[in-house]
Amino acid sequence: MKHLTTALTLSLLALSGLAAAQSNLRVGMAYDAGGKFDKSFNESAYTGSQRAEKAGGVVVKDFEPSDPSQIVQGIRGFSQDGFDLVIGVGFANNASVTQVAKENPDMAFGLIDDVSEAKNVASLTFKEEEGSYLVGYLAAMNSSTGVVGFLGGMDIPLIHKFEAGYIAGAKAANPKVSIVSQYVGTTPDAWNNPGKAKEISASMRSKGADIIFAAAGASGKGLQDYIKQQQCLKAAQLPKGVTFKTDNYKAVPKSASYTSACAGNTRPMFFIGVDSNQNYLGDFDSKPGTLNHGLTSMMKRVDNAVYTLIEDVKADKFKGGQRVFGLKDNGVGYAIDQYNKALISSAEVAKVEAVKAKIISGAIKVPAER
Q1: Is the dihedral of CA 208, 212, 217, 219 positive or negative?
Q2: Per residue in 106-132, pLDDT tens?
Q3: How many of the other CB atoms lie within 10 Å of CB of 315?
Q4: Which of 183, 136, 204 minimizes the C-alpha distance to 164?
Q5: Rounded Cα–Cα distance for residues 251 and 269 (Å)
Q6: Angle 206-264-251 (CA atoms, 0-180°, nearest 5)?
Q7: Helix axis angle, 128-142 relative to 157-173, nearest 10°?
């Protein structure tokens, strides 16, 4: 009798666990090129999904295509398995999400970074220009040469928003600043061509750019690698008409390799990260106390957008259509942490926060087009 009671108890526990698992909201995430651990856009989306899962009542499954043609199959697979919410990460997934959403009008879908025509798709987009304005402002305030760079990935309207905001912010901080802009390419390969991005970085340095903002996906690693290799600008290598105007980081401790490679009249080079907080990638000697080469990061809070969408579905508040995340929604911003706190003064933070407040209030209108 004791064994029978134990068996019944175990059976009931198993059924209870099965019921709990079935009651969880099931979310399917189909990632864009670069995979969910790209240290950028995809990873931010992944972080948001994991936050929702940890909050409870949610189970997340991933699909990472090895080829773009597989995306629609992965999204359709989630729908056929009866998932409660299917999210396509990246504008390249628009056609696939829209197609499968139309095939399943009673299901909930999400699309990051583009707008779907299907009524049952929540299209989550961002005011990238607002966050880019703030990092452009910081770049112009901190450039030692008065020349800053913008390195875009694929030459498309979405990345033009980053460029337009960055240029406007830089010119607001320093009307005399010079901005050098270039794109990696015009095809999706531009997101994953660090070699080309490295060549562009070298060209920008030769024009005197000491701070470069890359909105280029995995290609941005080419910029980071180039700055790790060069570390600084040298006075003797500056082009005609460009001189060192400031030396903001003279007192910041430098790494041994920097001290060796950048002796004499030099100034450090910096990158500005994108999408997620990439400041740590500028800590080339794994010592946050020495000069970091990541000035800041334009954070596109895909994680917040994904988390919000999942929680809406969980609360039975799903709505199709476009939803835009800007500064006032904590959808974009800039990063200050242990890696760059020695680079950006409290006075500069106060200035940027004042600018941020004016953007939110509407006193400053940030352009979204070049």
Answers
A1: positive
A2: 999 999 999 999 999 999 999 999 999
A3: 9
A4: 136
A5: 15
A6: 100
A7: 40
pLDDT in tens, 4-49: 444 444 343 343 344 444 589 999 999 987 778 877 788 889 999 9
Query: For strand 266-268 and strand 232-234, is the pairing parallel, antiparallel, or unpaired?
Result: antiparallel
Cα separations in angstroms, 339 against 129, 137, 292: 24, 19, 6
The answer to whether 46 touches 79, Cβ cutoff 8 Å, is no
CA distance 229 to 73: 41
DSSP string, 123-170: EEEE-HHHHHHHHHHHHHHH-SSSEEEEEEEE-SHHHHHHHHHHHHHH
Q: What is the DSSP letter of 359?
A: H
Model confidence pLDDT, tens digit, residues 262-292: 999 999 999 999 988 999 999 999 999 999 9
Q: Name the 3-class secondary structure at 225.
A: helix
Q: How far apart are CA 153 and CA 223, in angstroms?
A: 12
Q: Are 84 and 312 in contact (CB under 8 A)?
A: no
Q: Kindly report the CA angle at 202 between 198 and 205, in degrees rounded to 5?
A: 135
Q: What's the rounded mean pLDDT across residues 201-212?
A: 98
Would you state the pLDDT for residue 22? 56
Q: Is 253 left (phi over 0), alpha (psi -120 to 50) or beta?
A: beta
- Counted residue by residue, the chain has a size of 370
Torsion of CA 102, 108, 72, 98, to 10 degrees: 40
Give the pairing type, strands 294-300 and 332-334: antiparallel
What pTM does this model have? Answer: 0.87
| Distance, CA of 366 to CA of 166 (rounded, Å) | 10
